[in-house]
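P.,

For your records, the input lines for the assembly:
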Amino acid sequence: MIRTEGVSMRFGGLTAVSDLNMSIQKNEIVGLIGPNGAGKTTAFNTITGVYKPSDGRIIFKDKDITGLKPHKITERGIARTFQNIRLWSQMDVLENVLVACHLRMGVGVFASTLHLPSYQAKEKRSHDFAMTLLESVGLADQAHEAATSLPYGKQRRLEIVRALATQPSLLLLDEPAAGMNPQESIELMDFIGKIRDEYDLTILLIEHHMQVVMGVCSRMYVLDYGETIAHGTPDEIRHDPKVIEAYLGVD
Amino acid sequence: MKRNTILSIAASLVILTAVTLADATLGRFTIRILNLSAIYIILALSLNLLNGFTGLFSLGHAGFMAVGAYVSALLTMSPAQKEMNFFLEPIVPFLANVQLPFPIALIAAGTCAGIVAVVIGVPALRLRDDYLAIATLGFAEIIRVILTNTQNITNGAQGLKGITKYSTTWVVWSCAILAIVFMLALVRSSYGRTMKAVRDDEIAAEAMGVNIVKVKSTSFVISSFMAGVGGALLGHMITTIDPKMFTLILTFNILLIVVLGGNGSITGSVLGAIIVTVLMEALRFLDMPMNFLFFKTDGLPGLRMVIFSILLMIVVLYRQRGLMGNKEFSWDGAFSLLGRKRRSGKGGRP
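C-alpha cells returned:
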C-alpha cells in the first residue's frame, strides 16, 4: 500500500526524521510511537506533503508521491487528522464535512456559482454522503452546530469523519486519543476497527496511549530522535530493550 | 419555486421600482447619494469576498478600480472628446477611434481588472496576512503611478473629463442587485465553502484536498473583476476621473464599510455601504457654521470626520465583529423574529 524508502527530513542542522523505512500492507492498522519530539508528526507531514523530504522516496500504490502538494496527495487517497484539532471554526459540523466532499465532486467555480443542474445533483449526493458519515459517528443531530462548540471527543471524531469524506484508502491519525479518558479511548479503538472494515481502509496512527496502540495495531514502528529503533508486533515491542530504554531510561 | 426565492425576487423588484420612483421624484443630490451607495455595495462585496470569505487581507482595491474606470472611460468616449482631452500629447492611434457600447465597455473594464489581478496575484498570493496587504498596497500604487505617467494613453495627471454619464440609478442598482445575488450564490456553493475553509484554516483545507492556490487566485480575480466594474460605474457617475482619485483613502473607505458591516457578511456589506455613504453626507452640517444657544462656531471643516471617527470607534468597541458579525439576513430568520414578537405579544409579556 505505502512504502517509505530511506525518508529523511532535516531542518537546518536538526534531523527530525532519518532513514525511515516503513511498509504498510492493505487493511493493516499500524502504529507509530515514540517519546515526545521523536519525529512522529514530522513523518506524517512528509507523507502528506506538508514537507518535502530532504532524502528518500514515498511510494503509494506503486506510484512515487514524493514532493507532491498536500491536496494532490489527498486526491491520490491519503487523508489525515491533526494532533491539535484543526476544524474550520466559523463553519458548522455539516459544512466541515462538505468541504472535504468537494474534492470528489468535480465541480468548478462556474458550475457551483450558477447552481447548474449537474452541480445540484452532486451537491445533493455529497450532502447525503456527509449526513450518512455523521450518523455513523452519532453527530447527525449536531449537524448544524458550530464545529468548535462540540465537546473535545466529538471534535476528534468529526476530524476523522472529515478525513473519511475525502474517500481515502489510507488514513493517517495523529494522536486520535489525545485528551480522552480510558472509557473514550476504548470506544475509539472500536471505532477505528469499525471504520477500517466499513470503508476498506489502511490506517497508520500516532498514539501515546499504549492501551490504544497495543489494542488496535497489528504492527508498530518506534521512533526515537528521528531514528527507527524498533518495529514489530505489539508483543515484540513490549519486550524490546531498546524501546524500554527510550521510554523509561536506563542507568 | 420555493417561498424564499419568490420573496427574494419580489424584494429585488420592489427595490428597483423604489429607486426608479426615487429617481423620478427626488433631487439630484439625493439621487447621487443613493447611486453612490449602490456602487459602494458592489465595491464592499468585492472586498468582502477577499477579506471576509477567503481571508486574504488585500489593500489593492483602488488599483483595480482605477483600471476598470480608465478602461471603460476610454472605450466609451467619442473620438472628438478624446481629442479635446488629450491636448498635451495626442492619444495613441489604436485608442483614438474606438467607441464601444457601455455594457461591453463595462465587461471589458472588469475583465481588464481581472487580468491585472492574475498578473499581480501570481507573486503576491504566496504571501500571507499583513505581508499580502503591504504587497497589494504597493501594486495599487504602481498602477496609479503608471496611470499618471502614460500620458498618451490615460492623459496622465490631467485625467479624463466629459465621460458619458451612463451610471443612471437604474443601471447602478441593477448592477448592485446582480452583485448581491452573485455573491450569495457563490458563498453558498461548494466552491464558496472551500473559500471559507481556506480562511478558517489553510493547512486543514490543503490536507482535505482543497487546492488553496487555485481557490485564492479565483477569489482574487473575481474580486478584482467586481472592483473593476465598480470603478467603471463610479467613473461614469462622476464623469471625470484622474489618478489622484484612486489612492489608499478610497481602498480604506471600502475596507471601513466591510469591517463596519461585518467581515464575512453580505448583508453587513450592503448595510454598511448604505450607512457609511449616507452618514458621510448627513453629517456634513457639522462642517457648517453652527449656532448653539451659548456659543457659535463659524464652521469647523473636518468636524464631520471627527464625529464620524467617534461613531466608528463606538461600533468597534461595542460590536467588535461589525454590525452583522458573519451572520446573514434570511427570510426564515425574519419570519421567526416576527413570529416571536407576535407570540410574545399574545402572551402579554413585554
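Two observations worth noting. Chain B has one domain: 3-247. DSSP finds 16 helices and two strands in chain B.

Regards
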